[in-house]
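the two lines:
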Amino acid sequence: MPNLSRIHAIAQKEVFHILRDSRTLVIIILMPLLQLIIFGYAMNMELGQVPLVVQDNALNGASRALIDAFIHTDYFQVVPLAAKQLEPKSIFRTRKAQATLSIPKDFGNSETAVYLEIDASDPNSAQLIQNYATGIVGSFRGSVAAGIDLRPLILYNPDMKSSFFFVPGLIAMILVMICALLTSISISREKEMGSMEQILVSPVSASEILLGKVLPYILLGLLDALLILGVGMLLFQVPFRGEFVVFLLFTFLYVLTSLCLGLLVSTVAKTQQAAMMMALGITLLPTLLLSGYMFPISSMPPVLQKLTLVIPARYYLQIIRGIMLKGNGVQHLFQAGLSLVIMSAVMLLVAARRFKLRLS
Amino acid sequence: MKSLRVISSFIKKEFRQIVRSREMLIVLFGLPAVQLLVMGFAVSNEVKNLRLAFLDYDRSSSSRALVQSFDTADRFKIVPVEQDARAEDLISSWRAQIVVVIPPGFSKDYLSGKESSLQLVVDGIDGNSAAVANAYVAGVLGEFHRRNLQEKRIRTPLSKPIAEVELISRMSFNPDLKSSVNTIPGIIAVLVTVTSMMLSAISLVKEKELGTLEQLLVTPVKKQQLMAGKLVPYLIITLAQLQVAIVMAGLIFKLQLAGSYWLLMLFSGIYLFTTLGLGILISTKVGTQQQAMFFSWFIMVIFILLSGFFVPVRNMPPAIQWISYFNPLSHYMTVLREIVIKGSNLAQLAKEFWILLSSGLIIFSISVISFRKRI
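prediction for all of em together
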């Protein structure tokens, strides 16, 4: 039975470690806040006004009406170019325009086609530009618009704000960063410096050491997560539609999984530097890239999609976005929660085995 | 002559240290290779395999034809649902991301040329995917309608024919709109930054932590020689990594360098003065390796987020665009993309050239000044 006062002593020691290294602490608290602000304000997928070069060879009423239609939408901004006969590709190389619209000589009479050349070096923007242009030309001809009227209803995030997407994601990032990265570094540091050996010969048991070491980090992680949650809700009006108890329950589960991951790393890594590199390689980067934090999992190639199944943040992201944005209850998140439980159990078993081996 | 010998023996020592530790080699060449692979495939704003459900209350041949027309590209993955389901429930339970509701009487209205409407319900939590999904559906509907018009199954309510304008668009440089064309040069820019900055940030702190810096300081080695001896190997290693990345991009992602190889190297060399300088600067300010790691990580995250790697700088609000003007990575990323994708020349990249050159000179000078030969 773990002794509470011993755990408390170890935890206190760890708190001193954390507080003493104030520079690391500041970065840990500042980094997510800064990311939150950048994501909230800067990560905008909407294109601003697209600079467009128009080569009007018709110069008649029809061509002017079409150009007006492009200007009036706010999507395009016509940029004048001195040498009109420039080839589109060389215009794109100077980055003066992202698209060129070329209207043939007989437009409005015998000719009905206009030519749009788009700089597709950023395919995403190119796709959007094409969509805008198709829309403009479509409404210009008028007749076809009487086809099917599409009435979109965007649920949960009607303004499609990116902060709604990133605030829950950042919480998942911070928790894994603090719980897995910091704990693995702190354990491997004690090993590297030899102080682990000294603690091990004291009457404190292994489980007490581990509990004492991880408790401050759990607290730090949860505090940081709540800070992000608060700032996100105040600054960006991110809603919290679900129940707070459900949120706490699943967050605790995720913290547990992250700790098991950190523990596993620390049993493998011999030095701090190795622990940092490994923790970066197997916790932070996968969480950033393969969890659906930024890039949709369904767009990845099948092999990577399989790989995401073993990344805890993948499940937690579904959970936290479900709770905060969709107001999901336990019944919707049961499967994701179960995956976290299984993952922690497996990692804990492996880590415990390795830990014992090291001691013997 | 003598000073050159000192520097070269320093360089030899630094190389030996790196080559001797197998872990370091893996970190320097294995890890970036894996990152390029994983990121090349994972970092993509393409939206594919959207889980799409239909609630067809019309159940006519046109509504079925409409459903069929969604079954083409890899954009949608149609999920079967029971027809008494509610659209909101399908989305709230994560079964579908988009639900197309076809109301009763849809085909009657549509075929008689009256205004007909469809309800589209989209999961908005990922704003980007939602916007793209919306555009995809509109595209499929437009195509469906155009096809039907051609087959003359619909009588247009307007009797007089209106001349149609046809938009023919062509995609320059990247006709298949492959996402990797844009992301791979970006990843390479990030890798170059991460490697050079991390290496130089940790280098001196490590000697500090291990106490070997003290030993170096009592030798007659001059400060400039010490710095050169440290930085030249990192410069060479980072450039070597760049070669590996370029070769991999060509072999795996079929991304050929459109522009001049030497121009790319010139820009990379200039840019490395900035990152190596920043690394040295961090190294002089922090006390432990862990702090060096966290500090350089912190700076890099901001650099990367504001570089246009994920989202074009053009899309950002003016104030942030202004900030990212001072972000050297943003300019280097532009240069890499322009040279690799479009084959731009030095004249077209003149602005970036002067910015990167002056940033390199300024930051490197500051780091030389702040680097003192004492503890």
